[in-house]
Amino acid sequence: MEKRLDGFYRPAARGRADTERHHELRARAFVDQSIALMHLPAEIGDYTDFYSSRDHATNVGIMFRGKENALMPNWLRLPVGYHGRASSVVVSGTPIRRPQGQMRPDATKPPVFGPSKQLDIELEMAFFVGPGNKLGEPIPIEKAHEHIFGMVLMNDWSARDIQAWEYVPLGPFLGKNFGTTISPWVVPMEALMPFVEYNTVQDPEPLPYLQHQDPYTFNINLFVSIKGDGMSEAATICRSNFKDPGSFGSMLELSWRGSKVIELGGGETRTFLKDGDEVMLTGYCEGQGYRVGFGSCRGKIIPALQQ
After folding, report:
1. Is there a binding annotation on residue 268?
2. What is the pLDDT of residues 219-261, one digit of tens each?
3. Whole-prediction pTM value?
4. What does the pLDDT average to over 12-41?
5. Would the annotation count 51 as a binding residue?
6. How far is the C-alpha of 219 from the C-alpha of 222, rounded, in Å?
7. Which of 12, 17, 206, 242 is the most buried if burial means most Cβ atoms within 10 Å?
């Protein structure tokens, strides 16, 4: 090491042998991301899915219950969610098998069993939380940030025809828990704080135990693309943002429950997903001359198993 006049040290100039050794060590220590095998970033013991987008909840409510009953009264006053299947959370790149279940496509006839014909995606993000709390001891809202480690992209795969038949009265089950894909690394909340935004004003005002004044939503650009079998490149079907959704985040909304086609280009259209379709979610925050990325969250649909 050389000592500079300012008192700081710097590495001495490398000779040829040192440079070669340096490159050798880098080659042994690093591999290209394209050939790396990704794993879940943590062992997931529990998973709760929140129905947190007002736009999405309103759109789905209109389709299933009509405009007058789009949002249930409780939606505006408390976090609405349900427990998902933690064992079905998979890392980006894991194939997703088309699920089978009960559906009732014709309301005048009994339900039928078979592969879902309305397989869909949902553009979401997920928080990794921990450490937990003792049983029966709540975490006050002003300390919630102490338990949130970071965020990942999440695709909440959804079988809409199965979901529509089974969700009354207790909510989603098999139509939602056959697979949930997340991106392979967690972006810590500290890395996102330069992109923090003030929360929107809620009406009606939440009860005191749900109120907090500190800004805690984030300027994260989000995208969804689909690449079907035979397509030379993926087509972007959604551009949105975590802080202020500017686009439909599901094919249910984009096709308005199958009544409109989604153009993918080259003559390809969709209402819902076909076997062989690969869906990729991407997201990033953008600063002055740099980005904080979330990697990719992708999965390819494979056919249902024959029964």
Report:
1. no
2. 999 999 999 998 999 999 999 999 988 789 999 999 999 999 9
3. 0.90
4. 83
5. yes
6. 10
7. 242
**Residue 191: pLDDT band with limits 50, 70, 90:** very high
Q: Is 167 marked as binding a ligand?
A: yes
Mean pLDDT of the chain: 92
Q: Known binder of ligand: residue 161?
A: no
**Does 163 carry a binding-site annotation?**
yes
Per-residue HEC secondary structure of the chain comes to: CEECCCCCEECCCCCHHHHHHHHHHHHHHCCCHHHCCCCCCCCCCCCEEECCCHHHHHHHHHHHHCHHHCCCHHHHCCCCEEECCHHHEEECCCCEECCEEEECCCCCCCCEEEECCCEECCEEEEEEECCCCCCCCCCCHHHHHHHEEEEEEEECCEEHHHHHHHCCCCCCCCCCCCCEEECCCCEEHHHHHHHEECCCCCCCCCCHHHCCCCCCEECCEEEEEEECCCCCCCEEEEEEECCCCCCCCCHHHHCCCCCCCEEEECCEEECCCCCCCEEEEEEEEEECCEEEEEEEEEEEEECCCCC
Beta bridge partners of 151: 127, 187
Residues with catalytic function: 56
Assigned token pair, 294: 């979330």
Is 176 within any annotated ligand binding site?
yes
The CATH number corresponding to 37-302 among 3.90.850.10, 3.30.160.270, 3.90.640.20, 2.115.10.20 equals 3.90.850.10
